[in-house]
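User: Continuing from earlier, I have the next pair ready.

Assistant: Great, send them over.

User: Here they are, in order.

Assistant: Folding the first of the pair now:
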Amino acid sequence: MKTFNRRAFLQASSVLGGGLLIGLAMPVSYAQSGNERKEQTLLPLIKITPQGEVVVPLIMSEMGQGVYTSLPQIIAEELDASWQSIKVVDAEADEEKYGYQGTLASLSILLAWRSHRDAGAKARHMLIAAAADIWQVEKSACETSQGVVYLQGSDKKLTYGQLASLAAKMPVPEKVSYKSPEQYNIIGKSVQPLDISDKVTGKTQFGIDVNFPGLLTSVILKKPVFGAKIKSYDRSAALAVRGVSAVLEISSGLAVVASNYWSATKALRLLEAKWDLGKYKSFSSQDLVKQLKNKLSSPDILLKTIGHADKQLANNQGLSAIFEFPLLAHAPMEPVNFTAHVQSGKCELWGPTQDRGRVKETVAKLLAISADHVKVNTTFIGGGFGRKVQQDFVIDAVEVSKQLKLPVKVVWSRENDIQHGIFRPMSIHKLTAKLGKDKQVSAWQHTVSAHGSKEQAWLTTAGADHLPYNIEHFQANAHIIETPIPVGTLRGIAHSSTNFANEVFLTQLAMKAEIDPLALRLSMLRDKPRAIHVLKRVAAIAQWGVSKNNTYQGIALFDKTKEGSTFYIAQVVELVKRGDGKLKITKVYTAADFGQPINPNGIKAQVEGGTAFALSMALYGQIDIENGQVKQSNFHDYQVLRIPFMPQIITEVIENNESPIGCGENINPATLPALANAVAKATGQVINKLPLGANIFVS
């Protein structure tokens, strides 16, 4: 290996590459012995400046779930960098370099755990190799701490900034060892979020903040009914509005383009559009409920079967219950928006997306250009919840810009966002189960009737085919019907309904058998020590079983396995019943085991946010369709949780050495049934339908 003299090495500019997620090509020029050398191109994941700043590309989207901090924590730990030296930059959309970049299903931590540890550890190895080369010692004589390599038994030290250029010349090791949990200084610590300062001071740029000289704004008049077509419209009055430059037809409706949002919105109201409403003009959600209920008796998809549940439950044996879940909208605080600039053979985009790779593919296909000529600049996301995985609003922006060959930011109104979104599907569930002589559940059957497509049946069935409990005879079935309603993921996906049905029904079985709901769950978890632990911990912190005046509690468990990693969360919701019969949600207790915690405060924040999201769903969440149109239009009739309703959240983060998994979407499937079980305990009413309605609660 060629060595560098000390003077030349200290003069070097620095870029260090290492790890599986190579990509982010960085040009490097450096001087050696006073002679200029040609620019080099490296393929690194980590950039280290001469000042020792560690620049980490954020390959996933930040939407409040904390990956802007937690993913760099993983790299900083294995790199042995100072946390104060970390700087985050947005990564381009390039899945050949970085792997899958979709930010959904709480996959970020799960997907990044191995690759980011690997990158940090390999980079540290290369820095040590560089220092050993300079000092002419064995690598084992070197150790690292806080962005510095030290020579053991001496006062010699070199910073990462000084070493980076030489380290970049070192071979990338094929395999490295990782730190053990007892060596962690950053992983498992509640470090200060790296984005907090800009968010507090208002510097953070969300998609809706994108602005630059020459940028136009467009709003869209959407088709009023699913499948409607434009018949006629009058653009003259709209074009007379000051600042308005164009009225265009696009695939989703009519686009008004102006110099600002308010001019465009004013002009939109003057179009006098007339529509061919098509075959769905009489479609209603009530009709859909009837269709789904009728299909419960004839499922045609077998999801899973163990033993002989159908025989065990034949001839009306066991207890049955029907559960109903409505259509839901996402309603993020930042309505969907995107900015596009289509030019000849290329396109640049800016906006809040949960799937930048898919944006790149969608736009390339739409414009019939190479994906290499599509650049996606991902902004912070002002609430995603699965809505900003979709591409409809991106397509709007591209179609408008394509016609004008100018940069255009499309902003959906709140009404568009709620009435023309991608909805969480409606579903009806029938559960039947039988208790044996030992008061254990011996047979269980779960049938889901929902709408969508059979190819995406998991949107409504995931979780129906799984219970953590030991049941000898088990079966899950489904029937999916097609409707004109566009459906997709919403925080919790299918589990917000399937786990609600599972956990509420299990409590109903316990009450029928006069067994404590916690005791029944524990007795059915003989081979799930982590599940048992979270249930016992949440029971302990909630003082489950301790009688309190006019106080009622409900409990629920949720678990899921992804890519070989499993998490467990248990919650207890506590209510107080007033003299007038009104209920007040006072406390929510949580025991959360998401494997090795990366940032415990981040987990607690997600528990709090997920609980609030669940309470919004439980109290208000419902989209109704009449005459082919969504009735709700804004926060006055599609409400979200207000501050006075928010209970106290008490969370215990379980620490262990299991592989970590994200938690952003995995809270509400526990909160919803725990709340329903508490309401049933307080009122004596069986809770089989959402929303519960805010009228039974007091803030």
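And the other member of the pair:
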Amino acid sequence: MEQTVQALLRHLRSGKAQGLDVLFQRLGEAGAYRTASLRYPLVENQPLIPTFPGTTSQSKLLADALEKHLKQAHTPEAQFTLLERFGGFVAAQNTAGQEVGGVSWFDQVRLDAALNTCGEQVLVVRADLSGIQDFIYRVESDKALKSLRARSFYLELLAVHALRHLLTLCSVTRANVAYLGGGGFQLYLPAHCEDQVRAYTQRFDDWLWDAHQGALGFSLALISVSRAEAEGAGDFQRDLAEQLSAQKARRRRGKLSAVFAEVTSPQERLAQEEQLADALVAFGGLLPRATHIEIRMPQDIEGRGWVVLHDRAYRPLRQGPATPLPAERLALNSFEDGDAFPLMTGNYVTRVLDVPGSLRLLAEEENSRSVATHEQLADLALGQPRLALFRCDADNMGTYFSGGIPGHSAARHATLSRLLSLFFQGYVNAICAQRGALLPGIPQAERSAEAGHGRYLNIIYSGGDDAVVVGAWNEVLTFAVDLRRAYRKFTGGNEKLGLSGGAFIAKAKYPLLRMAERAYEAEQLAKQAKHQGAVVKDGFVPFLTLDAPGDDPRAAVRWNAFAALDDSGTGLDHTLNVLSAFLALGSKANSVSGIELTTKRAFLWKLQAFAEREGDAWRLPLLHYALARATPPADQHTEWQNLQRVLLQKSTWDHLGHVLGFLHLARPSAGERKD
């Protein structure tokens, strides 16, 4: 492995190295692969620092850093981690010295290493956890709510636990991991390992059944192909996907005797759930600032914060100057610890420590590093104390992975998987940590003094090509816009690559499972967003509330109509610009407790009636009537005239409902904040 790292170093020193071209630009094209017009810079692969195409960098700086760290990498595992750290954004070359478009140096090396260990016949294994949604959202106690992020991370650990056991069982390294994320993974293994893989899978699934009363399952699909097939177009990927779906549908086969003969009593099940909830509360309290996850045998553990998975125990660990690291460990969102298994994860949360002191309960001061409650997050919202749960999903990625990559190859497949994981499991933390307002002048709650903390929200789940967050409604709205902007930039501005998402807004005590279901409805509405009468996805539903039907396509708006996705959009066809015209009439008394406009609320209700009468012949007269009856603010004549011009433009009307939704949430009555 050291020779491979030395080859990368020589390539960087040669001055001929180029940044990885943006593979996303070519998704959906037919025929052979054409090198994309944009490139990522030659920089380190930093999971917590977004890397966007088009920026400048120096090959020499990257080479100097690689050489420095190579002297300290004494094991093949550490050297392989260096390849990922310093070769993740370097364009690969073939044996003739020609660039291999859409493939990074690291992904080409890891694929070659994996297939060399397999020989001429390769066992491709794909595994996936089932029951994820119910496990995360079907929470029935305050303890479970406090451990929400830990519950999600627990599922990530289950996948990593099974993956690492299979690597050890087959005597291969993490070079054989095709992808890891979204509660599943894919591996390239020697064909002779099939019986061992099946046997371990059965043991692990049996443990899951006993530990979670059948609520969680572990399904496996595998196929044996030649090395040439594994390297090529990947037609077998569809067969794997179909096989895995069938396995998940039949996962209770063979378990009927356990279901009917060994029924767990409600008391036993409740006790089991309470025990896991207690463990996850302690685990989750350590997770936000952890640098590692230590791994031990269950009989060797002591103290709080441990969760036991099958035959191993896991606990978050924060490395300090004098902290000895255990021999077996995972490194969170970092490649600096070369001897640890690196795990990227969206682990951003708001802790009690981050909440302004006036909103903390005295009892919570003793446990200030625990995750903030939903009530605390809602109290940090602008105007009405409401939570938003936001779900989003990258559009059409399944189609692209199964055949939408031009010149489809295993190396391009691996590069695309790694880049998506980097965005949704690493960069998402940096986007959460931003502190900017949705628009200049919109009041925000006092920011936490803690370094690295920005928005008042918690990541529930982020991985694969989707994400789920919950938090103060305006903080979630800002995050959603910035996530879409970052995704557009990361993917090179390819307009075919959408990100559909929706937010459901409710009080803090609204059932979490129902919030998740309604947010899913909003996400599905977003995938019905239209352009010139045709469904194009890439939509956003920002204000789905209890009063709004979950099947009204008018709730969805295209992202690039809601907010500019780059720095060039300032036209009135953007929802945020319409909102700006209203906010220009804001009162001097505006604060996080609410935005008051100098117009009367009756005027806004008339506009609401206008927005809801789409296609009605009386619609325009109703608007003129509302404007004629309104009392213009005496000292804001210019701002009032501008708002009138905006409202009379037909291009504004489709956005008016969303603007009024924002103003309704931002302008509570005095009693609503006490609710």
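Worth noting for the second one:
DSSP finds 24 helices and 19 strands in the chain. Residues 410-432 form the longest helix (23 residues).
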